[in-house]
Amino acid sequence: MQIIERKKAFQDALLTWYEAEKRDLPWRRTDNPYYIWISEVMLQQTRVDTVIPYYERFIKKFPTMQDLSDAPEEDILKMWEGLGYYSRVRNLQSGVREVVETYGGKVPNNRKEISTLKGVGPYTAGAILSIAYGVPEHAVDGNVMRVLSRILLIEEDIALPRNKKLFEQAVMELISEEDPSSFNQALMELGATICTPNPHCLLCPVRDFCIAFEEGKQQQLPIKIKKQKMKHVKLAAFAIQNGDGNWLLQKRQSTGLLASLWEFPMIELQEFSAVEAFEKEKGLKLKNLQELPHVHHVFSHITWDIHVYRAQLEEEHTEGDLQFFTKQEVEALPKSKPVLKIIDLLEW
After folding, report:
1. Strand (E) positions, 108-242?
2. Strand duo 231-241 + 302-313: pairing
3. CA nearest to 78, candidates 100, 105, 56, 54
4. Distance between CA 151 and CA 134 in Å, rounded?
5. Is there a contact between 226 and 159 (Cβ–Cβ < 8 Å)?
6. What is the pTM for the complete model shown?
7. How many angstroms separate the CA atoms of 54 and 44, rounded?
8. Ramachandran class of 287: left when φ > 0, alpha when ψ lies in -120 to 50, beta otherwise
9. What domains appear along the chain, each with residue ranges and CATH number?
10. Is 231 exposed, middle or buried (0-12, 13-18, 19+ CB in 10 A)?
11. Is 40 a catalytic residue?
């Protein structure tokens, strides 16, 4: 790791570039640890452009940790609607409640305490500590691992959890003690904009320090072997109205995928008729059936192929967890992205 010998020159080149070229993002205009915490949770597995309006709406709705701590779960799910990975916001609220109850509403400023909070892993802890408090701590995400694997020529599989320590140690060796906030953000920014999977090396401010570029190996890094097999599931969803034009919805279970969100009644497709299976399982009789285009949605390790049907109830009868809602009530409920796609098909 010969770059460590030229650490100061590397820091200067990286920080000078970041100061001149960094994107103007709303969470970069604050050192409020609560707001930075929110942004980091939202940015996990989500594109920056997607996050910006969610972040701005969220901090407007819950401007203080006390506001988020006191909020009903349905309210926070509604503000997260469409962002996906809903356990993130549940964990965020749980962590914030811990801060309010245990630390008097002040986010801990050391790794030991902040890491005990629900949903705060090593990356999020380091990001909050360095960005909000100026503590020289590592914040290693996928972008940072890609950058450092090339600069330092780390030819280890980044998909293996044990190898993350290599990158955390490297950051601690290289980080600017004077400006750890900008240093960590600069590494992330470099990975997001220049040192991308298909790198733009001619634009890179630290190309002179990059061992992979020097050896022509930048396209081969990072090494990532582990790949989880995608599961494909076929479903049928039914957008059903009663005689008053209200819509039939059900609430998902309180644990698991898309927990506690509302959706049109859905069943997993079998070999026999989707409609017959649905009527038998739900105890309903349908009429005026209309098949709509399929909805395709990809989660991290599962893909849903949803056959969508629009129908009316033959008899005014529901049971179990099914409830009717007006259009306005449906719009106010927290729903998943697949359900929002179905609503788009209904053209209401």
Report:
1. 231-241
2. parallel
3. 54
4. 24
5. yes
6. 0.84
7. 13
8. beta
9. 2-220 (1.10.340.30), 231-346 (3.90.79.10)
10. exposed
11. yes
Specify whether the CB–CB gap between 259 and 336 falls below 8 A. no
Q: How far apart, in whole angstroms, are the C-alpha atoms of residue 48 and residue 298? A: 19
Which tokens hold the place of 206? 């630290």
Instruction: Give the integer Cα–Cα distance in Å for 209 and 152.
Output: 8
Omega before 205 within 30 of 0, i.e. cis:
no
H-helix or E-strand spanning residue 99: helix 87-102
Among 5, 19, 21, 40, the active-site one is 40
Tens place of pLDDT per residue across the chain (348 aa): 566 668 999 999 999 999 999 999 999 999 999 999 999 999 998 899 999 999 999 999 999 999 999 999 999 999 999 998 899 999 999 999 999 999 999 999 999 999 999 999 999 999 999 999 999 999 999 999 999 999 999 999 998 889 999 999 999 999 999 999 999 999 999 999 999 999 999 999 999 999 999 999 999 999 988 677 889 999 999 999 998 899 999 999 988 899 999 999 999 987 668 888 888 888 888 999 999 999 999 998 899 999 999 999 887 666 667 899 999 999 999 999 999 999 999 977
Q: What does the CA dihedral 212, 193, 197, 40 come to, rounded to 10 degrees?
A: 110
d(CA 89, CA 332): 18
Q: CA-based angle 193:197:201, to the nearest 5? A: 60
- Identity of the amino acid at 175: I
Number of alpha carbons in the 13 Å side-chain half-sphere of residue 275 = 13
